[in-house]
Design brief:
Radius of gyration: 16 Å
Number of helices: 6
Mean pLDDT: 85
CATH topology: Chemotaxis protein chec
CATH architecture: 3-Layer(aba) Sandwich
Low-confidence stretches: none
Number of domains: 1
Shape: globular
Structural class: alpha+beta
Distance between the termini: 12 Å
Strand content: 25-35%
Number of strands: 8
Order of helices and strands: HEEHEEHHEEHEEH
Helix content: 40-55%
CATH class: Alpha Beta
Length: 204
């Protein structure tokens, strides 16, 4: 089974996991930063990789990408992407950094983005685990600042065969008047999607 074969009930189940995960992530981020962070999921897409690149503005769009591997009964890869144009504001929310003209990522920036990737992955996996009783074992996140096409290519090369489609969770972070949009990708390995849907009770 691939994502393009999902019916409405199956898609709704995956979207519910996205909404629960976003709530968990907002709570965790607010606790970590000691300030009120809201998070919403305006859209959840199920897209082939070619359209994933289009969604991000094309293969050459510069992004910061946090990625990790998830082992267990239903292995997958996870990728969290923030485009360069939103990264300065996102780091301002995370670290209180002011706008800077010459953009570079220092060790503190990298550490903060890895931790956000870790929190998001943990929040979505916890939501998925609570509804499926599947145990997920995520790796330590890695981070890259590169073109989105290169990052996606590296993830596929590092983590082997994955689905031709991705579950894309559009993620909007709000702190007072500041708003940043990123994208969170679930890339299940072959067979993992069927396992998750079976445990969700939406395979017919």
């Amino acid at each position: 089974m691939d994502f393009e074969q999902l019916n409405t009930m199956q898609k709704d189940a995956l979207k519910e996991i996205g909404n629960i995960g976003a709530g968990n992530a907002a709570t965790a981020l607010s606790t970590m930063l000691n300030k009120k962070i809201k998070m919403s999921v305006p859209n959840i897409f199920i897209l082939p990789f070619s359209q994933v690149l289009e969604l991000m503005g094309g293969a050459e769009t510069l992004v910061a990408g946090g990625y990790l591997q998830v082992d267990g009964t239903a292995p997958m890869s996870i990728l969290f992407v923030i485009p360069e144009e939103s990264l300065k504001l996102f780091l301002n929310i995370l670290l209180g950094k002011k706008e800077i003209s010459d953009f570079t990522l220092d060790e503190m920036d990298i550490s903060a983005l890895k931790e956000v990737t870790n929190i998001l992955a943990g929040s979505y996996l916890t939501a998925l685990s609570s509804l499926t009783n599947i145990e997920f074992n995520p790796s330590v996140p890695a981070l890259a600042f590169d073109m989105v096409g290169a990052i996606l290519g590296n993830v596929l090369q590092l983590y082997g065969e994955v689905s031709d489609h991705a579950l894309v969770i559009e993620s909007v972070f709000l702190e007072e008047e500041k708003e940043v949009k990123g994208h969170f990708f679930l890339l299940p390995e072959p067979g993992s999607l069927e396992i998750m849907l079976r445990e969700l009770g939406v395979v017919f």
